[in-house]
Amino acid sequence: MSVEVSWFSALCDDDYRHLGVSDPALRSSFEHCREIVLAAERGGFDNILLPSGYALGIDSIAFAGGVAPLLERMRLLVAVRCAELWPPQLARQLATLDRMLGGRLTINIISSDLPGAPVASEPRYARSLEVMHVLRQLLDGKPVAHHGEFYDLEIDAPRIGTVSGRCPPFYFGGLSEPARECAAQGADVFLMWPDRLPAVREVLEDMRGRAARHGRSLRFGYRVHVIVRETEAQARAAARELVSRLDAAEGEAIRKKSLDHASVGVSRQAQVREDADAEGYVEDHLWTGIGRARSGCGAAIVGDPDQVLAKLEAYRELGIEAFILSGYPHREECDLFARYVLPRLEHGPLQA
Q1: How many C-beta atoms lie closer than 10 Å to residue 214's C-beta?
Q2: CATH number for the domain including 214?
Q3: How many domains does the chain have?
Q4: Which of 157, 215, 285, 307 is least surrounded, with the fewest CB atoms within 10 Å of its CB?
Q5: Inter-residue contact 318 to 202 (CB < 8 Å)
Q6: Residues 134/91, Cβ–Cβ less than 8 Å
Q7: 197 burial via Cβ count (<10 Å: 0-12, 13-18, 19+)
Q8: Is position 316 within any domain?
Q9: Is there a domain that residue 172 lies in?
């Protein structure tokens, strides 16, 4: 089974040579993040996530418009924050991006709070589901008659749509009960953060059942960092070096900058980190040290090329069809993964 293999461009000030030690050359900027994207295209990746952090870094949609004309084959996975933009306006922006990319747009739906406007979990995910419904109708080229709790819209079908005339796939993640139900009803690809293999299996089984109860099916993606070197000893040494200058207080401050730092998913990452051994490994080749200075995805696959490949294959056997990978610094680790592992993976863009 082929999998989609994506990289990550650090739009949200999340690039380091040593975690927690700011490096002006690695701060998010159009130039720096563009180079990560172009390195991923040269390396053979299928897609690349452009994250959105609002208070952190640079804007995902504006950045996507800047790099789209520079790409020849790779997809863009553009993160959008629900309620940040009026859904019809967002649909128009996304349709325009899809045309600029020749039909290669994918969309990461984020249900996070907005600065200054926190919303409780249940209504926030209910709002996100409404946004997904409106976006899907408009990006499918259909008129919208939506009368919901958050949006009351009567809109004709748009004149300009996507290249395919269909909505690009929605990638969406979240572990809370409202998040899982939102994904089951509205998402196409359910994303997970790193966890032990048995826990990953449990979540996949749960989400398959939830989607089936709504007459739907889901595909599954896995967001994880990687540290790959020629030998396992070198990879583990690189992991130790990455956190060698990290101050605990600075790590906590970095984690709390994210608007979702108190979410169920982030709490689960903290629990996985607490369950790890003295070196930070929670199971073979899954290292949780990154989570000491990062909210959200907080673990890395660490090992030689054979070990990293075997770990990815284990996830694939569970039903994972898309990987979103990253590493520090992002451009350098992108090149290493593209050299050592990517050619050995059967991969390609997710097919509709």
Answers
A1: 12
A2: 3.20.20.30
A3: 1
A4: 215
A5: no
A6: yes
A7: middle
A8: yes
A9: yes
Q: What gap in Å lies between CA 104 and CA 106, rounded to an integer?
A: 7
**DSSP track, 62-110:** HHHHHHGGG-SS--EEEEEETTSS-HHHHHHHHHHHHHHTTS-EEEEEE
The amino acid occupying position 224 is V
Torsion of CA 89, 93, 99, 104, to 10 degrees: -120
For position 66, what pLDDT does the model report? 98
In the block, tokens 């996985």 appear at 272
Q: In angstroms, rounded to a whole number, what is the distance separating the alpha carbons of residues 239 and 344? A: 23
Residue 217 CB contacts under 8 Å (≥ 6 apart), including other chains: 208, 211
pLDDT at 56: 79
* Cβ-contact 42, 335 below 8 angstroms: no
With respect to residue 239, please indicate whether it lies within any of the assigned structural domains: no
Answer yes or no: is 261 within a domain: no
- Divide the 352 residues of the chain into consecutive groups of 10 and give the mean pLDDT of each group: 95 93 93 98 98 87 98 98 92 98 98 84 95 97 96 93 97 95 98 96 98 98 98 98 86 61 75 88 95 85 98 98 98 98 97 80
Burial class (CB in 10 A: 0-12, 13-18, 19+), 118: exposed
**Which pLDDT score, from 0 to 100, does residue 115 have?**
79
Q: d(Cα 224, Cα 68) in Å, to the nearest integer? A: 25
Collapsing DSSP states into helix, strand and coil, what is residue 144?
strand
Residue holding tokens 């996530």? Answer: 49
The whole-angstrom separation of Cα 65 and Cα 124 is: 28
Listed residue (177, 187, 138, 185) closest to 159, CA to CA: 138
| Single-letter amino acid code for the residue at 8 | F
Domain around 74: 4-225+300-344
